[in-house]
Write a structure and sequence with these properties.
The complex is a heterodimer of chains A (about 80) and B (about 170). Chain A has about 80 residues and is an alpha+beta fold. Chain A has 2 helices and 3 strands. The longest helix of chain A is centred in the middle third of the chain and has 20 residues. Chain A starts with 10 loop residues before the first strand and ends with a helix. By secondary structure, chain B is mainly β. Chain B is globular and about 45 Å long. Classes of the chains: A alpha+beta (about 80), B mainly beta (about 170). At the A-B interface, helix 1 and helix 2 of A face strand 4, helix 1, strand 5 and strand 6 of B.
Chain lengths: ~80, ~170
């Protein structure tokens, strides 16, 4: 991992069109600004990890879901529709 | 790209016979890019997202609006480009013959519970044959939205989907 020291309002460039600027530092909280082309996806990493974990969990469980669970699963939706 | 190994036995009929390519894979599953949406043996509104790359990989999916009537998504430019939607920030709900939005369900035994991942829905553009899992940053949607408890509550959730600003 490349490690760079930066002060407030200093920036780092990644490639030609991504600029990351340190806007403020307050204790262990750092506020950063990111300029990047619109087609670049920018995410908090923990959101990515959360969805990854859910995918893993869902794939495993889908394979294990038996007939009884399916009936239960479907009944959840039927309740919903009756409730409308 | 749509090669389908002989060993795969499809348990339902393909709703849309066309295989869907997820160029980036699903999040955390980037080696599995080719899927087909099948009717689920459990019946409507459940569907099965079956991997064509690995027969063991499948997901139970459903229309998120069956779970939250006012569920909304927002596509970033990266999303619309990846899905090859003409124009930008088109809402895939607008034409259901061309697009579908699904959320992935997780079922669990003992105690039986089901949650829906409303944070990371799947968007499929049937016209381009492309799909993408998106993450609705800042939406506040729950990646484990419980079905059993909240199913009757129409608007149990939060702010409208809102993408991060880049630029």
């Amino acid at each position: 991992m490349l490690v760079l020291g930066r002060k407030t309002n200093q920036s780092v460039m990644i490639g030609d069109d991504i600029i990351i600027t340190i806007l403020a530092v307050d204790g262990d909280q750092v506020k950063i600004g990111i300029q990047a082309p619109a087609q670049v996806t920018i995410l908090r990493q923990e959101l990515y990890e959360t969805v990854k974990q859910e995918n893993l969990r869902a794939a495993t469980l889908a394979a294990q879901t038996d007939g009884k669970s399916l009936a239960n699963l479907k009944s959840l939706f039927q309740k919903k529709q009756e409730g409308k | 790209m749509t090669a389908q190994p002989d060993s795969i036995v499809l348990s339902g009929s393909a709703e849309e016979s066309q295989p869907i390519e997820f160029p980036a894979g699903l999040i955390g599953f980037d080696e599995w890019k080719h899927f087909v949406v099948l009717t689920h043996p459990g019946g409507e509104p459940l569907r099965l997202l079956q991997s064509l790359d690995d027969v063991r990989v499948s997901f139970i999916i459903a229309d998120p609006r069956q779970i939250l009537a006012d569920y909304q998504i927002a596509l970033s430019e990266a999303d619309t480009q990846s899905l090859q939607y003409p124009g930008s920030s088109q809402t895939p709900w607008l034409d259901e013959t061309q697009s579908s939005v699904y959320c992935i369900l997780s079922a669990q035994e003992e105690p039986f519970s089901v949650t829906a991942n409303l944070l990371g829905p799947l968007v499929i553009n049937w016209q381009s044959g492309l799909g993408r899992q998106i993450i609705l940053s800042n939406s506040g949607y729950n990646p484990r939205h419980p079905l059993a408890g909240n199913l009757m509550a129409e608007s149990a959730t939060p702010m409208v989907g809102e993408e991060q600003e880049s630029c």
